[in-house]
């Protein structure tokens, strides 16, 4: 089972985003090699100024694109200012050296790509439109033919569109990763609740039996040592069984058997001085219903022994197009503020809900308490 991420996982994910953004941005710097070649060949006037401007432009471009790819938050004021400075620097390079060798007008393409990486639509579309106008204006100012201007504008639009698509894909991947992490957290919480429910159901029943039998040992130890010894042996057996059940619950493969729980509940009720009556037809239950009703019998019998003060208890199963289990006693129902009892019933209701069933309880007017569990005829496993 996956476990939810911690701070270290979030930091690692952010570092991955930065690395990917840097690699993506750096790959697209290769067209600037023509500008560098023109500088090294001495074909550009004011070469030092152009080289310094080009280096600053490339550094700003890398920073802005990495910020756009690595963060899912809106751009900060600092990010916006740096992008604006990048745009001004790009326009200066394109306007000042656009007519010289090296294709300096093409740097506006990087301005468009940086805006597409930092902004989301519709702002990204407005930024793209502005860069298209700027590229056309620079080309016209330097006397470039319309076909060359059109080709440059087309390349600019395609580059910006590619950046938008990649940024969107990375955002979707981030959302999927966040969803996966949320599902992992939910799975851990469900497992915690399952274990708490199993532990309550298993130990609540076994410990109640141990308490009842320990009271029998205390009452009979003086006058009937043999009977007390037999009860002590049963206490030991119950304790060992409970230990085995807890181990099975921890490993997650415990399965309840309805008929076994009926027999155990009848014996436990009799040991507690409560007369049991079991009315169950010899009919096989679906596996999911069998397991859920087994837990219902265990929980109901435990509550009758611990809380009701009853002298009799009837356990009845009926099939009327759907399964219904009813446990009725002649004692008193749980107190409204009995949180332990409520916790067990909530857990039982959750188990029944998993198979499409329901749980209800009724305090009888003349005295007595009824627990009723239902499940559909074809319950989900």
From TrEMBL:
<dbReference type="GO" id="GO:0000155">
    <property type="term" value="F:phosphorelay sensor kinase activity"/>
</dbReference>
<dbReference type="GO" id="GO:0016020">
    <property type="term" value="C:membrane"/>
</dbReference>
<keyword id="KW-0472">Membrane</keyword>
<feature type="domain" description="Histidine kinase/HSP90-like ATPase">
    <location>
        <begin position="294"/>
        <end position="377"/>
    </location>
</feature>
<dbReference type="InterPro" id="IPR036890">
    <property type="entry name" value="HATPase_C_sf"/>
</dbReference>
<feature type="transmembrane region" description="Helical">
    <location>
        <begin position="81"/>
        <end position="97"/>
    </location>
</feature>
<dbReference type="InterPro" id="IPR011712">
    <property type="entry name" value="Sig_transdc_His_kin_sub3_dim/P"/>
</dbReference>
<feature type="transmembrane region" description="Helical">
    <location>
        <begin position="21"/>
        <end position="40"/>
    </location>
</feature>
<feature type="transmembrane region" description="Helical">
    <location>
        <begin position="103"/>
        <end position="119"/>
    </location>
</feature>
<feature type="domain" description="Signal transduction histidine kinase subgroup 3 dimerisation and phosphoacceptor">
    <location>
        <begin position="191"/>
        <end position="256"/>
    </location>
</feature>
<dbReference type="Pfam" id="PF07730">
    <property type="entry name" value="HisKA_3"/>
</dbReference>
<feature type="transmembrane region" description="Helical">
    <location>
        <begin position="124"/>
        <end position="141"/>
    </location>
</feature>
<keyword id="KW-0808">Transferase</keyword>
<keyword id="KW-0902">Two-component regulatory system</keyword>
<keyword id="KW-0418">Kinase</keyword>
<dbReference type="InterPro" id="IPR050482">
    <property type="entry name" value="Sensor_HK_TwoCompSys"/>
</dbReference>
<feature type="transmembrane region" description="Helical">
    <location>
        <begin position="46"/>
        <end position="69"/>
    </location>
</feature>
<keyword id="KW-1133">Transmembrane helix</keyword>
<keyword id="KW-0812">Transmembrane</keyword>
<protein>
    <submittedName>
        <fullName>Two-component sensor histidine kinase</fullName>
    </submittedName>
</protein>
<dbReference type="InterPro" id="IPR003594">
    <property type="entry name" value="HATPase_dom"/>
</dbReference>
<dbReference type="GO" id="GO:0046983">
    <property type="term" value="F:protein dimerization activity"/>
</dbReference>
<dbReference type="Pfam" id="PF02518">
    <property type="entry name" value="HATPase_c"/>
</dbReference>
<feature type="transmembrane region" description="Helical">
    <location>
        <begin position="153"/>
        <end position="170"/>
    </location>
</feature>
